User: Which sequence fits this backbone?
């Protein structure tokens, strides 16, 4: 049973290395949700133009969502009158442009991947917009609206996946003259809400990466990605394979970063890593949700457009960073998930500070729930 304990140890060690970054990211996300008003921004989703897509992207980036909650938020936005492209832009940004993902990506893989993931996200949203405009049948969006309206009329809903879009309305417009302590209580509510939505994805990501690091032979990873032959063929093949691994791994949101570290260590290209990270919205359970929300035909179109955009974004980012000379060269560093150890160092001090701060936010959250501020809780 050594492999079992080693797998758990790898996962725990990686969580130890990134805990402070997760707390920091969720805190900043909560501050943005409370101190930045989104009421006027959400009204601008009704038309597909540069302004509405930019606002949707910014609102998504300011919200911290697991992939399931992001999909539900996009559904709710469409139900409330948002156009399809801004809704999808919000959905993608709320899982791929959030601060906690960037923080964990920086800790595990370095600033270059953070820059690539950030730049590539805007490229991907632009590609999704373009592909929808060029190829999506005109009646698909109407079909989606009709289906959502019918489901709403029948009161078929998923309260367990409450949307961050609705949270934004209820939490982001503080009353004039509200005390600072009250605002921090609302930050605590947002902090707890984000953790409650994401903890399964985060834990699942670390566990899957830990087991893969222990059980999958290095030769298998090296055979999965082309590492010889023409550079263009390798670039395309790796970008095509990256999202497929994400689909079958069932890992989404922040949880796919440890596995991305493992893939990079074992030979996937730079663009392949980026396309893999983006594919958290294509895992099998979410594809089923697309079909349930939008119908099978619309779900197939949305999935195909997302996949093509993710592959193209990975390729474009790879080419851009090659031209700029920013892709890490030389031998690949060992996977963070394989070589993480629980030792007392500066990371441990950061984790300790983060733990104390998180405990304070939890105290504010539960004190409020047990008092008179339960209307702010979710």
Assistant:
């Amino acid at each position: 049973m050594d492999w079992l304990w080693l797998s758990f140890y790898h996962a725990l060690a990686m969580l130890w290395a990134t805990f402070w970054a997760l707390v920091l990211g969720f805190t900043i996300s909560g501050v943005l949700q409370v101190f930045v008003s989104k009421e006027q921004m959400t009204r601008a989703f009704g038309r597909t133009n540069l302004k509405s897509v930019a606002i949707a992207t910014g609102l998504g980036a300011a919200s911290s969502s697991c992939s399931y909650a992001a999909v539900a938020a996009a559904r709710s936005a469409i139900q409330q009158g948002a156009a399809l492209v801004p809704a999808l832009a919000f959905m993608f940004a709320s899982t791929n442009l959030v601060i906690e993902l960037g923080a964990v990506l920086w800790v595990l893989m370095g600033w270059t991947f953070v820059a690539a993931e950030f730049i590539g996200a805007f490229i991907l949203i632009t590609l999704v917009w373009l592909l929808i405009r060029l190829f999506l049948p005109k009646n698909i969006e109407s079909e989606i609206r009709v289906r959502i309206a019918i489901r709403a009329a029948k009161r078929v809903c998923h309260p367990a996946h409450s949307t961050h879009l609705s949270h934004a309305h209820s939490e982001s417009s503080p009353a004039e003259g509200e005390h600072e302590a009250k605002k921090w209580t609302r930050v605590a509510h947002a902090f707890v809400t984000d953790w409650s939505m994401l903890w399964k994805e985060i834990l699942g990501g670390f566990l899957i990466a830990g087991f893969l690091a222990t059980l999958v032979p290095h030769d298998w990873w090296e055979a999965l990605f082309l590492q010889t032959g023409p550079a263009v063929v390798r670039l395309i093949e790796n970008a095509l394979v990256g999202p497929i691994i994400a689909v079958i791994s069932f890992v989404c949101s922040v949880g796919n970063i440890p596995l991305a570290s493992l893939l990079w260590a074992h030979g996937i290209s730079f663009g392949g890593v980026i396309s893999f990270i983006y594919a958290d919205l294509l895992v099998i359970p979410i594809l089923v949700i697309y079909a349930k929300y939008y119908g099978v035909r619309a779900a197939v179109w949305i999935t195909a457009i997302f996949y093509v955009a993710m592959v193209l974004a990975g390729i474009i980012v790879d080419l851009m960073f090659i031209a700029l000379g920013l892709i890490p060269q030389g031998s690949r560093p060992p996977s963070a998930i394989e070589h993480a150890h629980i030792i007392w160092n500066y990371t441990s001090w950061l984790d300790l500070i983060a733990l104390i701060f998180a405990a304070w936010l939890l105290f504010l959250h539960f004190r409020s729930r047990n008092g008179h501020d339960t209307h702010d809780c979710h």
In short: Residues 155-177, 373-378 have pLDDT under 50 and may be disordered. The CA atoms of residues 73 and 164 lie 6 Å apart. The chain has one domain: 2-376. The two ends are 41 Å apart (CA to CA).
